[in-house]
Amino acid sequence: MGLLKSLYDAVYVKILPNYPVELEKAVGDCKSLLDVGCGDDSPIKRFSGRMETVGIDAFGPSIEESRRKRIHKKYYRMDILAAGRKFGPKSFDCVLASAVVEHLKKRDGVRLIEMMEKLAKKRVIIQTPVGFLPQGPEEGNPWQEHKSGWTVAEMRRRGYRVIGLNGWKPLRGECARLRFWPSLFWLVVSDVTQLFVRNRPERAFEMVCVKDVSEQARPRLHLNNLG
Q1: In order of start, what are the domains of the chain with their CATH numbers?
Q2: What is the CA radius of gyration of the chain?
Q3: Count of Cβ atoms closer than 10 Å to residue 157 Cβ
Q4: How do 52-57 and 32-36 pair as beta strands?
Q5: For 60-84, what is each residue's pLDDT tens digit?
Q6: Residue 27: CB atoms within 10 Å
Q7: Is beta strand 52-57 parallel, antiparallel or unpaired with respect to 92-98?
Q8: Tens digit of each residue's pLDDT (9 = 90 or more) over 159-214
Q9: Which residues of 183-201 are buried (b: 16+ CB within 10 A; e: fewer)?
Q10: In the 3-class helix/strand/coil scheme, how is the chain assigned residue by residue?
Q11: How far apart are CA 8 and CA 98, in angstroms?
Q12: How far apart are CA 10 and CA 7, in angstroms?
């Protein structure tokens, strides 16, 4: 199993990068991260050991399971929309919401994004399905219901660069489950289509949206451009 895992990481994931790999690239050189709605198995577990990380979530069992896995350094059980009162502006290099905004009504999702942009010093990362994906409460967690959908165009209008994830959209359904059988075959097909949808996120099942909010990342206004 160890050899297969090494080959998978060295070859398969390098050619067809999955979400945790894309996420690690997006986080880049950030040294601190707030994981908003961290859940019980955050994708940052791949690299969280090299950073100062804080996980917040409203669902107690998810916090306890994540703590058992030692994914984050600190945890807070709280309403994620209250994070702006808990932490001050520019408190973290990176603020992440992975599979979160779709669980909020649209107006609350907008509030969350605006709050994340205030909390971040360098970067905001949001991962969500492309468009609305119906989903009810899962595993006794009422917060798992989907209440809104987000498009590539609206995230770009908010200043985010967008990467397509999880392959061609028609291959997956609720909870990202593959629609067809045998699942192993269609998993490979889905992974291969990632080569196509990465730079065509409108065709992807999910998207990761990245916005640099640091002063250095903002375009500077030159006197030559004032006319």
Answers
A1: 16-164+206-213 (3.40.50.150)
A2: 18
A3: 9
A4: parallel
A5: 999 999 999 999 999 999 999 999 9
A6: 22
A7: unpaired
A8: 999 999 999 999 999 888 999 999 999 999 999 999 999 999 999 999 999 999 98
A9: eeebeeebbebbeebbeeb
A10: CHHHHHHHHHHHHHHCCCHHHHHHHHHCCCCEEEEECCCCCCHHHHCHHHCEEEEEECCHHHHHHHHHHCCCCEEEECCHHHHHHHCCCCCEEEEEEECCHHHCCHHHHHHHHHHHHHHEEEEEEEEEEEECCCCCCECCEHHHCCCCCECHHHHHHCCCEEEEEEEEHHHECHHHCECCCCHHHHHHHHHHHHHHHCCCHHHEEEEEEEEECCHHHCCCCCHHHHC
A11: 24
A12: 5
In the structure encoding, which two tokens stand for residue 44, read together? 């940052």
Amino acid identity for residue 201 in this structure: P
